[in-house]
Amino acid sequence: MKTHIITYGCQMNEYDTHLVRSELASIGAQFVDSIPEADFVLINTCAVRGKPVEKVRSLLGELRKEKEKRGLMVGMMGCLAQLEEGQQMARKFGVDVLLGPGALTEIGKALEAKSRFWDLSFREELTHHLPPAPQGQLSAFVSIIRGCNHHCTYCIVPTTRGPEVSRHPDLILRELEQLKAAGVLEVTLLGQNVNSYGNDQPGFPKFGQLLRMVGQVGIPRIKFTTSHPVNFTDEVIAAIAETPQVCRYIHLPVQSGSNRVLRRMGREYRREWYLDRIRAIKEAIPDMVLSTDIIVGFPGESEEDFEQTLSLYDEVQYDSAYMFIYSPRPGTPSYKHFQDLPREVKVERLQRLIERQKEWSYKKNQQWVGRTVEVLVRGSAKDEGYAEGHDRGNHPVLIPAAQAPVPGLYQVEVKQATPHMLFGEVVGAQEAATIPLVMA
Ligand code: SAH
Ligand code: SF4
Ligand code: F3S
């Protein structure tokens, strides 16, 4: 079966694609790079905002035409597949295989079935699954916890991914050992809420303890995403500070700087709590690089509320931010109960926030000029003559290609900075990749 997989959405979806791909490989699937070459097209879908949903809808439309022409098989998996909205699309466009994010381990069975195969259950096998290490990669993801127990009023994720289920620590450590043996130099621990790790399973370590255990494996760089401010305890901060493998980068979504909006969002913390967590982080680790997620134009957000977000931005001084316009999602409480703001208001606020973020990114990036950072070089950059990578603070870094001829870790002195990246020169190679990698 010639298979082509298309992935939308977050890093969790990328990890799930890897998992499904390895299942498919074990039953003899071959992978191809385009739809015309494929007998089976599998879409890993996202439903967090309207845009990714519309992308899937138009892709399914295209695939239906191919299906009519040449009997192509179409599969849909991931978050949208779990929702009524996605299932309606699947019926309309004649999707053959539909797997929710909890049923991915059923992919083999789905392909053996001679008729339409739909599975939307949350299967325990998934948390016990150990996918093989990807080959020829310097960075990899490892899922540590699936699902989400929060109830943010705008968010569809708890519906699509179900309640929190932590993976057994032994399994996580075995997966990390495999990745280390495969030459991986950087691992990102994944979950909708990594710092709730262990809360659902008596006897499991908590997230801080897990970080310390993961550090012991000896992979040089450990990152994690995403954290919820409510569970960002002092113990987590101490574990980060005391585990040198853990990168100096934290993504801590705040969503809004206004207490009124935070309450309507159901975020379970106030602005003051969030700022106290940031203070504790900066106190323990002064060089910490910080990023966040912000939703602008949440229903009922006034100009004053929005200004509170801008002022929080100035207090925290984020290095970068993912900024989203509120997108009403059917099935969420805010969709049902609140009136969406006019689009112009939302767009105008987004533009102001982007401006503010650029100013801070520029100032913060300038502070790195003259310092030496460790860069994980992946390969050639789009800009000719440069290699690209990122440092332990997750800043993108460009280096003259001749100075970093093979992927791996390099010591780099930062010479220049823009709001979006750092430019540097190699002052020493630390660890070249031990796996055969070709510069792209
Ligand atoms: N569990 C993570 C990430 C969830 S989805 C967390 O809580 O941080 C990633 C981001 O998408 C969220 O942080 C939020 O900023 C954004 N998002 C979620 N639902 C949204 C919606 N309905 N409209 C706009 N942005 C949304
Ligand atoms: Fe969604 Fe909130 Fe859960 Fe994040 S914490 S996945 S934003 S419900
Ligand atoms: Fe999208 Fe699901 Fe991730 S909705 S953002 S793919 S958790």
UniProtKB/TrEMBL annotation:
- EC supergroup of this enzyme: transferase
Annotated [4Fe-4S] cluster 2 binding lies at: 148, 152, 155
| Protein location | Cytoplasm
The TRAM domain covers 366-428
Q: Which InterPro entries match?
A: Elp3/MiaA/NifB-like_rSAM (IPR006638), Methylthiotransferase (IPR005839), Methylthiotransferase_CS (IPR020612), Methylthiotransferase_N (IPR013848), Methylthiotransferase_N_sf (IPR038135), MiaB_methiolase (IPR006463), rSAM (IPR007197), rSAM_horseshoe (IPR023404)
Q: Which GO terms describe its cellular component?
A: cytosol
Detail which positions bind [4Fe-4S] cluster 1: 10, 46, 79
**Which residue numbers delimit the Radical SAM core domain?**
134-363
Q: Does the keyword Iron apply?
A: yes
The keyword Transmembrane is annotated on this UniProt entry = no
Cofactor(s) demanded: [4Fe-4S] cluster
- Keywords attached to this entry: 4Fe-4S, Cytoplasm, Iron, Iron-sulfur, Metal-binding, S-adenosyl-L-methionine, Transferase, tRNA processing
In alphabetical order, the GO MF annotations are: 4 iron, 4 sulfur cluster binding; metal ion binding; tRNA-2-methylthio-N(6)-dimethylallyladenosine(37) synthase activity
Q: What is its EC number?
A: 2.8.4.3
Looking up Gene3D superfamilies in the UniProt record yields:
Methylthiotransferase, N-terminal domain, tm_1862 like domain
Looking at the record, the residues that make up the MTTase N-terminal domain are 1-116
- Membrane-crossing segments per the record: none
Q: How does it assemble?
A: Monomer.
The family assignment reads: Belongs to the methylthiotransferase family. MiaB subfamily.
Q: What does this protein do?
A: Catalyzes the methylthiolation of N6-(dimethylallyl)adenosine (i(6)A), leading to the formation of 2-methylthio-N6-(dimethylallyl)adenosine (ms(2)i(6)A) at position 37 in tRNAs that read codons beginning with uridine.
Protein name per its UniProtKB record: tRNA-2-methylthio-N(6)-dimethylallyladenosine synthase
What is the organism field in this record?
Answer: Calidithermus roseus
Taxonomic classification: Bacteria, Thermotogati, Deinococcota, Deinococci, Thermales
Q: Which gene encodes it?
A: miaB
